[in-house]
Model the fold of this input.
Amino acid sequence: MPSLTTMVFFILLVLACGWLTWTDIRFGIIPNWLNALIAVLGLARGFAMDGSSGVLTGAVAGVVVGAVLLLLRRGYFAWRGVQGLGLGDVKFLAAAGIWTGLADFPILLLFATLAALSLAGVLHLAGRAVTARTAIPFGPSLAFGLLATLVLQPLLV
Done:
């Protein structure tokens, strides 16, 4: 059974992800302060669980994820001339990397991608045109991917 500390941090993350989902659906952005909050919560959780080594491990994961995705974002723009991933999404994923670590980060991406594809399928079945130019907020799918990964993390070990 998870510790009280783990549950408190998870509940705070769920609230932040709920706010993120609402904001991204309504306004099409993920605010910097919300990404910072998720990152700080992840670092605080790391400290509460593993002390300074937990903070360091989380920080390194967040920086690596953020740097790789920022390079991927820039490379895609250079190749196609359009932004394929919003900067808020990149910042959120960097913050999410603090929570998941590098090893489980691909699971987050898998869950988020499946959620986004499912949403596109539902929109198509509902009669909405879904094309390569259809803008679908990715933040809610990313938030789902993070939470699902954290819930399933004990089973992934």
